[in-house]
Amino acid sequence: MKILDILEYLKAEHIPFAFSGDAESWVEGFSSLTRYKPGSFTWIKAQKNIPENFDLSQLSLAVVSEEADPGAAPNVIRTPESKRAFFAAVEHFYGQEENRPAIGQFTYISPKVKLGKNVRIGHNCTLDGDITIGDNTVIWNNVVIMNRVTIGKDCNIHSGAVIGHDGYAYTEDEDHKKTMVKHFGGVTVGDQVLIGENVCISRGTIDDTILESGVKIDALGHIAHNCWLEEDTAMLVPCSVSGSVHVGRNGYLAGNIIRNQCTIGENAFVGLGAVVVKDVAPGETVVGNPAKPFTRKKD
Fold this sequence. Notes:
single chain; 299 residues; mainly beta; 15-stranded parallel β-sheet; 10-stranded mixed β-sheet; 29% strand
């Protein structure tokens, strides 16, 4: 295809960029910079990612961040959204829909389940309860969804996820004999949500556990009962979010432990491995155990 085809696609997706070179030149396929295939297009994330003594003039097309220097590369797409631009173009021009059955083998779907259009469900899954799945959502293998769960459109639920079991809560008598609390809430998941491999999401005790649209949960995460993750929250592996935690819009959790009933403010960033024991203010970055506001040392 011509480079022009990629440029027109980026325009259609409203991805900002500046191009230098010959838009009529041809590229075939894509490759990483470290294993570059002649004639393909590639991505330069940062200057440090350019291999030592690499001849940039051999690149047919480079999608480049604003911080990197493409040197003598003849055709360059420079954009502040270089990662998005590169991978969106790869998926658009080279992604292929997998030929999978709508319902896999040994999957059980109870009578109350409502499936939208083009829903695909993998092998060995169990959907048992008052469950609604939105259009174009993909559920992979060995997934369990139970009790009362609503999942929106265009979601992707990876293998091994468990959604809708009662959470961990109990009462005690004077002798410390524990009785588990019965849950009556559900789980509500918005549109375009990713739920990674082996993620566990507990239903609410009374009200629903909520994941708003655009939330992305990496593998091995745990979201306890009554949690509320607002739009575009990102939760990286491995992360444990205790009960009744509220994460504001575009919150970023990087492999953390979050104490129950904490609030993580909008646009807050919780650094890798931090243990949060109190609220985090909107826009604040916290790190460490216990998590504290991050401040850069002055030179």
